[in-house]
Amino acid sequence: MFYKSLPQVIDKLPMRVNLQRIASALELEFINPEMIPFVLPNMFLIAEKASNEEYQNYIFPKLKQVFKIQKPPQGSSASGSVMQTLLILMRNMNLMLTKTPPEDIKQHILPVVYNALDAESSQVQ
After folding, report:
1. Predicted TM-score of the model (pTM)
2. Mean pLDDT of all residues in the chain?
3. Which of 4, 29, 55, 56 has a beta carbon 3.0–4.6 Å from 35's, enabling a disulfide?
4. Is residue 75 left, alpha or beta, with left meaning phi > 0 and alpha meaning psi from -120 to 50?
């Protein structure tokens, strides 16, 4: 319930609070792969409103943790959340490509695209 109502709160808060408090709290949830699909859309909502510099300094370093998530072992309980995470990343690809420096695109975002194309789920492809 909390994560569903968070977008309305994010819209009302100053960007400084979103970047320094909300984004940092959301990042703490990235350690649990099953929570990422609930947290990631809110992180992208903050990223949309952030300037390129704010995105590169505050949001992108946090997103790098999510980019490292690979396919779980077959039959793992986390496989559904990993597919959901890949789908959310692909849906926000335009935002990331617009705000991320070219060298970081090559190093961090292209592997996500390759991983999504290699995914077994047709939703992600």
Report:
1. 0.87
2. 88
3. 29
4. left
